[in-house]
Every structure is written in C-alpha cells, then in structure tokens.
Specification:
The protein is an alpha+beta fold. Helix content is about 40%, strand content about 15%. A hairpin with a 6-residue loop joins strand 2 and strand 3.
Amino acid sequence: MESIANKILYGAARLLRDSVLPVILSAMPNDVRAARPVLDDTDRAILAVLSADARTPNNAIAEAVGIAPSTCLARIRTLRERGVIRGFHADIDPTALGRGLQAMIAVRLRAHTRERVQEFMRDVPGLPDVVGVWHVAGADDYLLHIAVADSDALRDFVLEHLTTHPAVGHTETSLIFGHLRGAVGATAPVTDQTPIGPLPSER
C-alpha cells in the first residue's frame, strides 16, 4: 500500500513539474520571470517621487533626491531601459467614461494546457471592458478587473465572453465597492541584493 501511495505522489509531482508549471511560466510576461532589478537608495528615492506624481519635473525630482538634474535624467533613463519604470499612465475615473460598475471576476480554466492558456490570453485581455488581468496561483487561474456601465452590462460580459469561451470552466464575480491606491514601497530597503554602484556621470 505504501509503495502504491509513493508511486501516486511521484507521478503527481512529475505531472506538476513537466506539464503544469511550464504552462504557467510560459504565460507569464518576461519581466515577471526575469531576475529582480537591483536598486540603490537614489533609485528608490526617484521612484518614490514618480510614484506619488509621475508628472513631477526632472528638476524637482533632482532637488527632492539631492542630485544634479543631469544625473537625475540619466538615472530615470536607465530605470526605463532596465524595465524598472514600465510606463507613465493617466489614472482615469471609469465613472467619467460611463463605466460606473466595477467587478473582479475569478476565472478557472477547463484544463491547464498551453493551448487553453494561450487561447484565453489571446481573446480576453484585449476586450474593451477589461481594466486588468492577473495570472494567479490557487483554486483560480486568473482574476479579471472589469469596468462596465451597469449590472446588465456585467451579466452580458460574463455570458458573452467567459461562460461561452472554450477555455473557461468556471467564473465567480465579486462587485467592487471601492478602491484605494496603496504605496508601492519604492523606498523600502532590500537586504538580499547588493546595490548598484554610481553611474559614470556621478563618479
């Protein structure tokens, strides 16, 4: 009996290693799988200012951080090139666009195959009502943040785009009553990596 149980556990472990994990990793964007960029205190101070207001002028950022404007500009350029700063976006109120109802939809796929994952990622994230998509671990595979006009539009979205989708096996919808944007912790210390040295312009 113990031998049979060990064989079952061994088979399940191999299935997870050889089939499930490769599919999950293949669907992740490259910046998630890549090594975490190493930042020093100056980088983190710049990111903290930009996180509070991405429109802050370069001179004001340099003054707040305590470096020369030219150095600040070079730092920001490097952070963008390294993929630390992925973009600058306007935070738009969906209600102003006629989308007064927001929801988070948990999606469970029918099967964790490469074909199903690619099928879902090809069709769903680009839909007009989708604000964001998270690939998660646990009972569900994806979380969809959507913004629609009303409850009828929410029902139509689920029926037309999810329950009839060949890759989707189960959905669960939660209404969003409110949202608060948290601090990204740009100035929090990192103890498991060595900070980068100064840029050539600072030496």
